[in-house]
Design goal:
Bound molecules: 2-acetamido-2-deoxy-beta-D-glucopyranose
Structural class: alpha+beta
Low-confidence stretches: 18-24
Largest sheet: 6 strands, mixed
Number of strands: 6
Radius of gyration: 18 Å
Helix content: 25-40%
CATH class: Alpha Beta
Number of domains: 1
Shape: globular
Number of helices: 5
CATH architecture: 2-Layer Sandwich
Order of helices and strands: HHEHEEEHEHE
CATH superfamily: DOPA-like domains
Mean pLDDT: 84
Distance between the termini: 60 Å
Amino acid sequence: MNGNIILKLFINLAISSIVIGHFVQENNVDDSFISVVKFDTDVIYYSYHIHVYFLQKNTLQRNEALLLRKRFLSEFNVTICPNHCDTWCPQICHWDFNRSPTGPHPIGSWGVYIPLEQFIRTVSFISMYHGNLSVLIHPNSGHPKIDHLLNAFWIKSIVSLRKNQLSDNAPPPSSSYRILN
Ligand SMILES: *[C@@H]1O[C@H](CO)[C@@H](O)[C@H](O)[C@H]1NC(C)=O
Ligand SMILES: *[C@@H]1O[C@H](CO)[C@@H](O)[C@H](O)[C@H]1NC(C)=O
């Protein structure tokens, strides 16, 4: 390769890393972690979360995230989540708009709790209107680390989550909660 091509490649790489803001990595998990989930393991999905990501210092992306959130909350009549609801909440609900990294989310984000029966409509909506934003859709089985890193779905691109912020186990929902078969 001549020096000119190498220089152009370097400039392109530098520009794209500045535009994207960071290098997107996969949420690699090691073999010992993967082997925790056996094919015949009895896994129950109680609910899902949708998390929408944006680069918090990029005004365009932040505004896009705010607008998408407004439309989503209005489309599905979403109210604020009560305290201590995560794996199971009484109904569809939302958390705060995070203007900075929060918990396992390494960049700006907003999130909603999705009951199983609203999965298709909400995920279809977010797939249609996510625009430039990356989206994580993860189940809640009572094992946050596996739910986020191994069994999740991503739209657009994978955002590298902060693994040390995810616990192995979460308390299961109380037996009074209805579970769909
Ligand atoms: C949202 O609430 C409005 C007014 O109460 C109602 O007409 C509409 O059907 C609700 N939409 C959903 C998706 O529940
Ligand atoms: C996505 O980003 C491009 C370039 O910044 C912008 O023109 C476009 O309007 C954005 N899309 C949405 C849905 O905001």
